[in-house]
């Protein structure tokens, strides 16, 4: 999960997780060769990994929420090739614990009372692989921008742009996919872009040098997000991480 962010938020990158300082909870683990594995084939479990210290998302001089960007490569390798768990989410939250959050369709982010509650101060980018009508899912293979709710503020079928047009991408193919998540504090747009990763995860970590992928020129999903009003808690500091909820 290489990460980078701008302005006053610290820049950081992980080219492997062996011996790293990420905070794990649930069944998340790090393999001997440095891969972060959020879940295994267990059912109804949650795995999470967070950056260990809170990050400040508010410009101390003018009070505005600052721009940031992050990119990481992930793969969802289902036990059954045709049916994965419920998905993965990149999350920014005031807490590393997300107390009471449920697995499965709740993605380890919310429960019945915290879902849709503006006091949750949670924003997530979900990579959702199971259709749930109760959350208004558009299909079983989509990207969603979630603001305090699993009912996405904006969602798009998982796809990427090429010079020959838009191409669908299966989130549960087991193949590595790169994601870019970028927030522009001036126009208040959160943009999500996907593309197949060109090299395998193991090669990336073994040679220790992650060369940037060519980011598609168009984003697959984009949502207006008044980060300061809708997401930042009074403490102003938030923590970022990834979480995964497994279902039956
Ligand atoms: Ca879902």
TrEMBL record:
GO terms under cellular component: plasma membrane
Keyword hit for Cell membrane: yes
Domain Legume lectin positions: 11-197
Top-rank taxon, per record: Eukaryota
InterPro entries: ConA-like_dom_sf (IPR013320), Lectin_legB_Mn/Ca_BS (IPR019825), Legume_lectin_dom (IPR001220), Leguminous_Lectin (IPR050258)
A GO term for molecular function: carbohydrate binding
UniProt entry keywords in alphabetical sequence: Cell membrane, Lectin, Membrane
Annotated localization: Cell membrane
Membrane topology: Single-pass type I membrane protein
Family annotation (CDD domains): lectin_legume_LecRK_Arcelin_ConA
Family according to the record: Belongs to the leguminous lectin family.
PANTHER family: CONCANAVALIN A-LIKE LECTIN FAMILY PROTEIN, OS07G0133000 PROTEIN
Name of protein: L-type lectin-domain-containing protein
Species the sequence originates in: Cinnamomum micranthum f. kanehirae
Source lineage: Eukaryota, Viridiplantae, Streptophyta, Embryophyta, Tracheophyta
């Amino acid at each position: 999960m290489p990460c980078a962010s701008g302005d006053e938020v610290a820049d950081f990158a992980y080219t492997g997780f062996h011996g790293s300082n990420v905070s794990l909870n649930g069944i998340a683990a790090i393999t001997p060769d440095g891969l972060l594995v959020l879940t295994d084939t267990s059912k109804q479990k949650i795995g999470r990994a967070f950056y260990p210290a809170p990050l400040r998302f508010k410009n101390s001089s003018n009070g505005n929420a600052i721009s940031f960007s992050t990119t990481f490569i992930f793969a969802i390798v289902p036990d059954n090739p045709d049916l994965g768990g419920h998905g993965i989410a990149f999350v920014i939250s005031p807490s590393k614990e997300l107390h009471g959050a449920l697995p499965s369709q709740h993605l380890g982010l919310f429960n019945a009372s915290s879902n849709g509650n503006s006091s949750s101060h949670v924003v997530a980018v979900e990579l959702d692989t199971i259709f749930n009508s109760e959350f208004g899912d558009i299909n079983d293979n989509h990207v969603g921008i979630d603001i305090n709710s699993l009912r996405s503020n904006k969602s798009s079928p998982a796809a990427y742009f090429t010079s020959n047009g838009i191409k669908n991408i299966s989130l549960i193919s087991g193949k590595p996919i790169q994601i870019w998540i970028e927030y522009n504090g001036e126009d208040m747009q959160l943009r999500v872009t996907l593309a197949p990763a060109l090299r395998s995860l193991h090669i990336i970590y073994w040679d220790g040098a992650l060369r940037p992928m060519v980011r598609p020129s168009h984003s697959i999903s984009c949502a207006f997000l008044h980060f300061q009003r809708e997401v930042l808690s009074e403490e102003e500091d938030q923590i970022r991480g990834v979480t995964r909820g497994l279902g039956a």
